[in-house]
Design brief:
The structure holds two protein chains of two kinds. By secondary structure, chain A is mostly helical. Chain A has twelve helices and no strands. The chains are: A mainly alpha, B alpha/beta. The A-B interface holds A 3, 6-7, 10-11, 14, 17-18, 21-22, 96-98, 100-101, 103-107, 267-271, 273-274 and B 13, 64, 67-68, 71-75, 91, 93, 96-97, 100-101, 103-104, 106-108, 110, 112-113, 117-118, 120-122, 124-127, 153, 181. Bound molecules: adenosine-5'-triphosphate and magnesium ion.
Amino acid sequence: MIARLRTNWIILKTSVEERLVYRGDFVFATLIRFLPIVTQIFLWGAIYGIHTSAPLKSIKGYSYQEMVAYYLLVMVGRAFSSMPGLANGIANDVRDGTIKKYLVQPIDMLGYLFWARVAHKLVYYLVAIGPFILVFYLCRDYFAGWPDAFTITAWILSLIMAFLVGFLIESLIGLIAFWFLEVSSLIFIYMMLNYFLSGHMIPLDLFPEPLSQWMQMLPFKYLAYFPGTVILGKYSHQELIFELSIEVVWVIVLFSLNRIAFQQGTRRYSAFGG
Amino acid sequence: MNAIVAKNLEKTYKVYQKKEGVFASLKGLWKRDYKTVHAVSDVSFSIEQGEIVAFLGPNGAGKTTTLKLLSGLIFPSAGEATVLGHVPWKRENEYRRRFSLVMGQKNQLWWDLPAQESFRLHKEIYRIDPQQYTRRIDELTSLLEVRHLIGQPVRELSLGERMRMELIAALLHKPDVLLLDEPTIGLDVVSQRRVQEFLKYYQVKQKTTVVLTSHYMKDVEALCKRAIIINQGSIKHDGPLSDILDKFSNYKIMDVQFDGDDMPPDFSQWGEVIEKEAPHVKLKVPRNKIPEILSSLLSKYRILDVGVQERPLEEVISEVFTEQKNDMAQSHDRKSMLKSTTD
Ligand SMILES: Nc1ncnc2c1ncn2[C@@H]1O[C@H](COP(=O)(O)OP(=O)(O)OP(=O)(O)O)[C@@H](O)[C@H]1O
Ligand SMILES: [Mg+2]
């Protein structure tokens, strides 16, 4: 058990070092991520007509301030849930045979990728925390104030689980490469769907019924919409507990699917190359 | 004790036959033609602990496939195997801690990090004792002469340097079984020798069981006493390396030095001339005719020196491969001939 933890720790450390090799590229990518928020502020300003004589009070329960705050919070959520290159990385490893090393060495591939990803995220937060604080400070007027401790705790949990759900969905898509070598178009479709279904584009309640309700039954909302709305006070404490429990169930289901896919996939794998 | 036992191993692949042309490709979307490929069709052998055995065979013979089966990378279509008492494709950690596979270049090292970082990761993954780890790194890097390179990102290393690092990574945890798929491919002569010498030294010292494939007979001659020849997915020969020459080579090389310029103008009655530079001649002669030829030459000419050698292994092996290929082609022709006559 302790040896296992040590191994994970070393994987984490090594991945952090590997990540830092590309730090220049990294800082740039981090800063680029803040650009869309400026667009959102102007776009929704126009939709709500904040500069007109009769601005809209609310759209489906979202005031203009809340709407901008939503996008800011979604940005935080996605900092946890987005997994650039994970699915593609797995698919490439399957195709070019790099995956062999995970099968030959006494390590678990998904566990390994998980800790490597945690490392990447940690490095990312280290770089991004400054800009994030600055942006939130500049945009402080869009927030109504601090929510209660319970909600903040739920929010932190929702972020951690957003990471888990994001990781598990993407790795599952990557594992499909065992069956169909070419998954890049599938990944592209997933990205598009994810943009709608996670609430990255607009809050899910803005979609018409019953579409909105269906969307809320899928796990994708935990990637952006849920962590985005927790702080806005859209849930009672009871509802928060309920949502988080459902999310735990999703994590378990996705985890099991990953295990099954990995087991079945490596069974039919023919270790290309050599 | 046997380290590796394989019994009737078989691996077939179903390969999708892509047709030419747009229409055929479209049709392929719902109806696909498959062809079965027998990568390995009936392979049995056993290898003792501490033995070092070569797998020989032409391209596509099934060597790599056999190694993949033994390392548990793929599941067999039929047959059984145990390595160190484990069934490889169950991929138990206990087994995985006791063997190593080196296959190609991009194996276990992190591309962007210095090799020592990968080694450190291996130390954790394989739970290597810290003191032993330091000692082994010292030993292996100096034996392979790459100590000064372990701090350099792997992507900056040359092919040969990278291969040596791969070997170190594979040996850090003192595997009991080492599977090497063409470990010297692409290396220059010096590096090749270096790797050969290293493997030999290491194997003798550690008594590791080694299975190796290579197209360089130099590797094989330097390292192995026993060879398994595999072709078309099944074993054609299994035994001491020297037996290959006895079994497959009907010829030997005879080196004759005459006294002065008095030598036969024509050698065709004795054998095929390989090299002739008076008063020296090199002949390829049938191996069972040597006494006869010698006495016939001695009775007519004055000879200073005679040497008899085996032909180079490389030559014999390539002959074996071509012959088997021709046999296959012939039997194939015969079959198609039969078919056309009955039509
Ligand atoms: N994944 C696969 N799918 C289909 N056919 C395969 C696959 N892997 C190997 N084969 C076929 O199986 C046969 C044996 O391949 P293998 O890689 O074992 O040959 P090899 O002896 O290692 O040859 P080489 O000396 O060229 O490395 C070949 O004919 C190859 O085309
Ligand atoms: Mg091969």
